[in-house]
């Protein structure tokens, strides 16, 4: 039976099955979890626990703290990853065109609903319940009476007592006078101001972002850059050119869609970017509440059909302060998985929340449970229909590999790849089993440069649903005289056995390119 066209349930359906004890999981969910590292999650010990609990990607948010602080955190991440023997990609999150309110005193500011407050670009004025200085001089030029503004340290998290909802009543010179719609207390040194559905004439890639990328990003060879507030494909092209000019051509760009402009140009952005982050924080206040679900579901489907990773944010906000998510949040995570998301991004939950490790583990368990009823058959048919006929050779072989894996109930699909592209192509058809991507050096490549390039390609696979990369080698000292294929299969099978996804007599699909051709094989594992 199909439930909502996204959920596959076996007949007869018995709700009592929900009461059965969950089967123990020895392997993380296929859906990836991005954790934002910060005060509550930057020690080696906590990062180790997060990685063990299922965190696949580490996000560094440069909208707060300086490069030295983030470098300490990254050094701890590297130690933790080494200790638990896992690769973990680095995601650098840019600040972008963010209007900031500078609270020079640091004191809490209480604003009462029904009162008025003036927003001014004059930073010399101390912030209060009557006046709030912002670092942007053109606000009065771009807003009009009736426009909606939101303000807060974390914007609207669901805890409205810390976020402010304003309505523009008039403009006076460079100042904007607003009606306070709700009572709230603003706290912290910096608040963010979001203007709903209004174009702000600030560059998407700020000078600060460029400085961070060209120094901290280059020094640490960041794997992924999350381009905040992406509004057009030109934003992505500009960042791509900047990366090329700073020897970061291997760094992937994930466009962060968080406003109406980004949605309007979604198709062009998707074509230009390596992946998409549907950022429901700002997006959730830029759109009417009844429209948010449509942006998520449509955006995910477009990414799925294009075969590009898509990540959803803001799912378990309540776990910042609570050990368990709300019922609505748990269902929200599951629905994102059923929609087809590649990953879930945790922000405040891991950055400043009381339970960073539990947040990762809880979301992972929900994802795993949802994956058991994911309607893979429907997704497969949709992608095949979208690709059309005649199929390109690589699409034909990749879809055949996934179809074969389904028919023989394979425990895993092993892919040999140089760049990770073959693994992403397999993942496009959403196999219900893990994809073990053995990343080999390209023939004739410089061994001294390969390790850096290959590690980057391997780490980037961690943001793709179901793909788990392994570093291959062509060094005879490591391969033990085995052929590339024999060594790759042995490496993948040994890993699969060690994490419990491959057992004796399981079947495994092998997918590899030989010259201009692609080959699919089925092997049965012995009990050795």
TrEMBL record:
Known cofactor(s): K(+); Mg(2+)
Domain Pyruvate kinase barrel: from-to ranges: 31-360
Highest taxon listed in the record's lineage: Eukaryota
Pfam families: PK, PK_C
EC number(s) stated in the UniProt entry for this protein: 2.7.1.40
GO CC terms in record: cytosol
Localization: Cytoplasm, Cytosol
Any GO molecular function: ATP binding
Pathway(s) this gene product operates in, as recorded in its UniProt entry: Carbohydrate degradation; glycolysis; pyruvate from D-glyceraldehyde 3-phosphate: step 5/5
Transmembrane segments: none
Catalytic activity: pyruvate + ATP = phosphoenolpyruvate + ADP + H(+)
Domain Pyruvate kinase C-terminal: residue ranges: 395-514
Subunit organization: Homotetramer.
PANTHER family in the record: PYRUVATE KINASE
Family: Belongs to the pyruvate kinase family.
Protein name: Pyruvate kinase
Species for this entry: Lolium multiflorum
